[in-house]
Amino acid sequence: MLEVTILWREVMERLAPEYPDVELSHMYVDNAAMQLVRAPKQFDVVVTGNMFGDILSDAAAMLTGSIGMLPSASLNESGQGMYEPCHGSAPDIAGQNVANPLAMMLSVAMMLRYSLNENAMAERIEAAVGSVLDDGLRTADIASEGMRTIGTDAMGDAVLAAFAKQ
Ligand SMILES: NC(=O)C1=CN([C@@H]2O[C@H](COP(=O)(O)OP(=O)(O)OC[C@H]3O[C@@H](n4cnc5c(N)ncnc54)[C@H](O)[C@@H]3O)[C@@H](O)[C@H]2O)C=CC1
Ligand SMILES: CC(C)CC(=O)C(=O)O
């Protein structure tokens, strides 16, 4: 494990000059997990391998309130991508109409922006999601006092209605 880490650091030191606007520092993954929770604003770009990234991104998801809020893009050099919510199939809540659909919708917005060059449409989706949240609508995973808790279907309908008004 540590030998791989040393190689990782050597490669990052070699590549860093190609990204002069990114300040490079190194962190072991256990500390990174703690720092993400303790002081998340210190991070901007995190470069790591698949397994560590998978675990750190789930921890980071909770900074947004729920993993149901977090979209993702996996991009190649020419902008082709695979877009998906960070979460999995959530089998424990399947069929209960409680899953948060916003990460999926925000993943579509990322696809429009990064692969299809449709930035205006991406912004429209994001604004619709923002306006529904501003209106106090919440699925169960992000429910809080004073807000109205609704199901997956109703959240989808609310975003669609807000989208039509944008
Ligand atoms: N990117 C991917 O393709 C991923 C796929 N998976 C797959 O999904 C399946 C289930 O894996 P789990 O470990 O249970 O992870 P999961 O992400 O499906 O669920 C973890 C927890 O988060 C909750 N959750 C997930 N999405 C939610 C949403 N939209 N709204 C509200 N709550 C939500 C679930 O109810 C569960 O309590 C497995 O087959 C796994 O391999 C899991 C994670 C990522
Ligand atoms: C850890 C994996 C089995 C599931 C996962 O998180 C993924 O597929 O992204």
Automatic annotation (TrEMBL):
Residues 1-159 form the Isopropylmalate dehydrogenase-like domain. Keywords: Amino-acid biosynthesis, Branched-chain amino acid biosynthesis, Leucine biosynthesis, Magnesium, Metal-binding, NAD, Oxidoreductase. Gene3D superfamilies: Isopropylmalate Dehydrogenase. It is an enzyme of class 1 (oxidoreductase). Belongs to the isocitrate and isopropylmalate dehydrogenases family. LeuB type 1 subfamily. Homodimer. This is 3-isopropylmalate dehydrogenase. The lineage of its organism: Bacteria, Pseudomonadati, Pseudomonadota, Gammaproteobacteria, Oceanospirillales.
